[in-house]
C-alpha cells in the first residue's frame, strides 16, 4: 500500500492517556468488520448482522429491548433525551454531566428547547437531596417541568454508581413520575468494575433508556441506544434519520457490537483498562505531593499535580487534559493500554519530581 508508507507520528505512546477515544479498533471489532465485509446486504439496518447485533445486546442485558445504532455519543444522548420528553420539560443531571458540559447544547437543540438543570454531588454522582430540591423547587407553569433524571455510568470523574445508589435515584424518579436516562459511554468499565450482571445497573435499576458506549470500548465508531421501555422507542427511527444518524451501511456500525459482545471482549477489555488505571493510581499515589482526586473505580485517574510537574510532563510530550480546576489532570486508560505505558508515565513523573 504505497499511500501508507509511514505510520503517523501521533500513534506515540504520549497520547496513551489523553482519552479512551485515542486508541484504535480492538481486534474483535476489527474482525467483525472484516468478516462482514463481503457480499451485499439490505441497507439502513434491515440486514441480518444488525439483527444479530441487536439480539446480542438483548442477551447481554437478559431482556427484550429496542436497539438503535448511531454514530456517536452526543447524538445517542440527545436523541434519547428528546424521545423521553417534550420541549417544555427539563432534564436533571450532575453539573459535570457530558450532556451539560460537552455536547454543545445538542440535547436542548434536538429536543427543541428542553432545559437542562444541574445538581451537585460528590465524586461526580448526583446528590439525592439536591436532586429532590431541584425537582420540587418550582411547580408553577412558568418553569420547565422536570421529566428526566440523567445519570452517567461510569461517571465523568471515573466513579461508578452501585446498584443501590441507582435504585435510590429510581425511587425518587418514581415518586415524581420522572424517567431515567443513562449515559453509558463507559458502561463497560462500570460493569467490569462492579463485576455484576449488566441488568443490575440498567433496567433492574430503573433505567428507561440507555446510551451504550461502543467507541470508547474499542469500536471504530458507534453507540447503541437501548430502550428498555419499548414503547418509548416509538418513531425513534425517524428521529435518527432526521438527525443524520441513520447509517446506510448499518452493518459496519452494528457488527462490531456483535464482535465484542459475543467474544466477551466488551467486558474483558474494560476490565483491562480498569486494571491499568489501578496500576497508574497506585503509582501516582506513591509519589509525594500528588493527590488523587476521586476514588479510582473505572478506567480513569484524576490527580492534582503541582504545576511544575504538569508542565514537565507536557514538555516531555505527554498529552492529558487538565479541565478540572487548574491543578487537576485526567489520565484515561484504554482497552490497549500496556503496563509499559503506565510505567513509562510513572517513571517520567518520578524523574521530574515535585
Ligand atoms: C465520550 C463521551 C460521550 C460521547 O461523546 P461523543 O464524542 O459524542 O461520541 C458521552 N458521554 C460521556 C460521559 C463521554 O465521556
Structural account:
It contains 13 helices and eleven strands. By secondary structure, the protein is an alpha/beta fold. The protein has two domains: 13-23 and 265-352, Alpha-Beta Complex (Aspartate Aminotransferase, domain 1), CATH 3.90.1150; 27-262, Type I PLP-dependent aspartate aminotransferase-like (Major domain) (Aspartate Aminotransferase, domain 2, 3-Layer(aba) Sandwich), CATH 3.40.640. The protein has a seven-stranded mixed beta sheet, with helices on both faces. A four-stranded antiparallel beta sheet has the order 8-9-11-10. The model has no long low-confidence stretch (mean pLDDT 95). The structure holds pyridoxal-5'-phosphate (PLP). Pyridoxal-5'-phosphate binds at residues 72-74, 98, 152, 156, 183, 185, 215-216.
In brief:
The protein is an alpha/beta fold and 354 residues long. It has helices at residues 27-35, 48-61, 73-84, 98-101, 106-110, 128-136, 163-176, 187-194, 236-242, 251-262, 265-285, 307-315, 339-352, and strands spanning 66-70, 89-94, 115-119, 145-152, 179-184, 209-212, 223-227, 291-292, 300-304, 321-324, 328-332. It has 13 helices and eleven strands.
Helix-strand makeup class: alpha/beta
What is the molecular shape? Answer: globular
Query: What is the first-to-last residue Cα distance?
Result: 47 Å
Q: Return the CATH architecture of the largest domain.
A: 3-Layer(aba) Sandwich
Largest sheet: 7 strands, mixed
Q: Give the number of DSSP strands.
A: 11
- What is the CATH superfamily label of the largest domain? Type I PLP-dependent aspartate aminotransferase-like (Major domain)
